[in-house]
């Protein structure tokens, strides 16, 4: 049983975000709970943003990956909203992989509610917000005044606002 559970977790690490193919659902902290009993795997996941259009794709990809695990006969993937997902759930490896993709990982919230990110390309702290509304609900567009590149950043999401 431990071998199957380990294989399930390894399989989940292989499921990438459909929009950012360097980070897995594990890297993003989307997996809240995994249970395995008598060949049935149940996975509870947290959506990063309500209404994210990638949730159906993520669910399908998780199911497909888990059905490949020896000993898994049935799979249930359920998105839950409690506890809410926060950007603090992104792993350190997730931060590295976001930078590899050219997206700045989310910062932690400051007491003032303002946030700042460093450039994922050159590491410069000299960046400015170009548009809080990025290509998706979870990202913003920034500009690095050091290397002169525009880049995206994951928006910080916290339960303390």
UniProtKB/TrEMBL annotation:
Residue span(s) of domain MIP18 family-like: 5-77
Range of residues in the leader sequence: none
Domain of life where this protein originates: Bacteria
Gene3D superfamilies assigned to the protein according to its UniProt record, in alphabetical order: Fe-S cluster assembly (FSCA)
SUPFAM superfamilies recorded: Fe-S cluster assembly (FSCA) domain-like
Domain PaaD zinc beta ribbon: start-end pairs: 105-155
InterPro entries membership: Fe-S_Maturation_MIP18 (IPR052339), FSCA_dom_sf (IPR034904), MIP18-like (IPR002744), PaaD-like (IPR011883), Zn_ribbon_PaaD (IPR056572)
Protein name: Phenylacetate-CoA oxygenase subunit PaaJ
Species the sequence originates in: Pontibacillus marinus BH030004 = DSM 16465
Source taxonomy: Bacteria, Bacillati, Bacillota, Bacilli, Bacillales
